[in-house]
Design brief:
With 172 residues, the chain is mostly helical. The protein contains 6 helices and no strands.
Length: 172
Amino acid sequence: MNKIKNSFLWRMLDRLMSFILIASSIILTLTIGICVFVRYILHSDIYGSDEIITLFALWLYWIGAAYGSLEDSHITADMLDLFIKNPKILWIKTIFVKGFTTATAAILAYWGVGKYLVFNIQNFGYTTALKMPMLLTTSAISIGLFLCFVYSLFHFIAAILSKPADYLPKEE
């Protein structure tokens, strides 16, 4: 699995997602700051600012979700690890949880790419104010769902290939 993590494609996706997350955060912060200044200090409004904010907020949200899947760092409410000390049972539980997550991500990716993205390509639309292609915004959802599936599948396979001994309790 380390061979995959060290591959060119894996590293490039990691860097690209990091860039999108950082750029989206900066652009969102600046845009909202400028909008607040213009509205409350200059008593005016920036035409189409909501479309720009929506565009970068969606990319930040969905690529952030994919990045959480990449790192396998989503928040969980799993307390079983506190009570179960048998490494084999923890290993089986991990495989089950990651398998369920992968199956759910597969369904969402199917709908996000196979249905939603195809629909948006066929019904190509534009935003109201700035006339930006809606595909710029909606593709963030499809790409994010697809990447969540890919990374969930990776972690599911890694769990299957691991050994129960990898789940021994760590000494503090």
